[in-house]
Amino acid sequence: xxxxxxxxxxxxxxxxxxxxxxxxxxxxxxxxxxxxxxxxxxxxxxxxxxxxxxxxxxxxxxxxxxxxxxxxxxxxxxxxxxxxxxxxxxxxxxxxxxxxxxxxxxxxxxxxxxxxxxxxxxxxxxxxxxxxxxxxxxxxxxxxxxxxxxxxxxxxxxxxxxxxxxxxxxxxxxxxxxxxxxxxxxxxxxxxxxxxxxxxxxxxxxxxxxxxxxxxxxxxxxxxxxxxxxxxxxxxxxxxxxxxxxxxxxxxxxxxxxxxxxxxxxxxxxxxxxxxxxxxxxxxxxxxxxxxxxxxxxxxxxxxxxxxxxxxxxxxxxxxxxxxxxxxxxxxxxxxxxxxxxxxxxxxxxxxxxxxxxxxxxxxxxxxxxxxxxxxxxxxxxxxxxxxxxxxxxxxxxxxxxxxxxxxxxxxxxxxxxxxxxxxxxxxxxxxxxxxxxxx
Length: 440
Known about the structure:
Elements: H1 2-11, H2 20-39, H3 44-55, E1 62-63, E2 70-71, H4 73-86, H5 101-114, H6 119-140, H7 143-146, H8 151-154, H9 156-167, H10 172-183, H11 197-217, H12 233-237, H13 244-247, H14 271-283, E3 289-296, H15 298-304, H16 312-315, H17 319-329, H18 339-342, H19 345-351, E4 354-358, E5 367-373, E6 378-383, H20 396-411, H21 413-423, H22 433-437
Parallel strand pairs: 3-4
Antiparallel strand pairs: 1-2, 3-5, 5-6
Helix pairs in contact: 1-10, 2-4, 2-6, 2-20, 3-4, 4-5, 4-11, 5-6, 5-9, 5-11, 6-9, 9-10, 9-11, 10-11, 14-17, 17-19, 20-21
Protein name: 2-methylcitrate dehydratase PrpD
Family: Belongs to the PrpD family.
GO molecular function: lyase activity
C-alpha cells in the first residue's frame, strides 16, 4: 500500500542517506524561508493572529521570528508559517506551484526549540518533510490544483506531519496514523488568493501537521491508507492522480532539489513577464510606449488576471500591476507591492498599456513579450526560464542580498549575518539557541 510503503521509506532514510548536495539545497531553502518569515513578521495580519494567541491560555515558550512575543508550539507553527508566505516571496517547486518550506520549517523550528534538538536533527526532518509533501503533490497535480485547492497547504500538511513525526520519534504505526490525521485536516482554497487567508494556509498546514503528530504520539488512531484509499486523499481531492509518484525512486531522486528561490515578491508564474518588462523598461521611456503584449499560458492569466487591484496582496496576483512596476521601477520586490504603489496614479495609468494574451503554445514558465511604440516600432523578447528558476537560479550571493534586504531593517546587519552563518552550517549545531537568539 502507498501510505505504508511511504512510512517505511521515511523511517529508513537517515541523515547520512541524504546526498550532500540535497542537504546544501535544503539549507538554502531553510535560509530563504527564515528571511521571508522575518521580513513579514511585523505585518498587520501577524498582529491579528498574535492577538488571538494572547487569548489562549497555554504555555508560551516558543519564539515568533522577528518578534519579542512567545507562544506555544502550535501557535508558533501557525504564525511563523503564515508570516513566511505573506510576501509571496518564499521558495517554489515549479512543477507543482508548491511552496514547500512554509508548512515544514515552522514545525522543525518549534520542536527544535521546545525539545533542545540538534541542527542535524532539524535539517534531516525538514528535508524529508519537504520531500514527502512534494511527492504527494506530484501525484495529484495538476487536477487537484485545477479543482481549486491550494496545494501548498493541502499537501503541505503531510510534510509537516512527517517532519514532526521524525522529531517526536514516532514509530511506524504512529507515523502512519499521523499521516491519516494530517490528511483529514487537508484544506486550502485558491479563492483566497490575494487576501490574508492565502498566507494563513501554510501556517495552518504546519499547525495541523504538528497537531497530527502530537496526537499520534499519544496513540490516537486513524486510517492506515489515507493517501490511496477509495475515500482517501487522492481519490477525494484529485479527479486524476498517479500514486506511483509518491514512492518511485525514493532516495534516488529528490524533489526538494528542484526547489527554486524567488527574486520577485509575487507568484512565480509572473516572473517571466517581470523579466520581459524589466528588459523593456531599461530601453524605453513611458511616453514612448503604446502597449506591451505579454503572451502567456492560460494558466498564468487564470492565476494573475486581476485587472484593477486595490491592495498589495491583490497586486501580487495581477499581471497588469506586476508588468507595470517591472517596467517603471525595474523590480518587483516587496516595495513594489505596497498599497500606495498599487494605487499610485503612475502605476494605474501604465496598467492600461499591459495587455496579456493567451497562447497555449507557450509553457507556464515562459512568456513572449512584444512592445509596440507610439511610432509603430516593435520589439519582441522571449523569456524561456525566468530569473530564479531551477534552470536560471539565484546565486547564494543574490539570495543573501534578498535575505539582508528583508531582515536587516528588523534585526540589524550583525544578526542577519549570524543567521546565515548558522543556517548554512546548521548540521554542526548542538541546539538552536544561537540561531534563535538572533531572530528577535
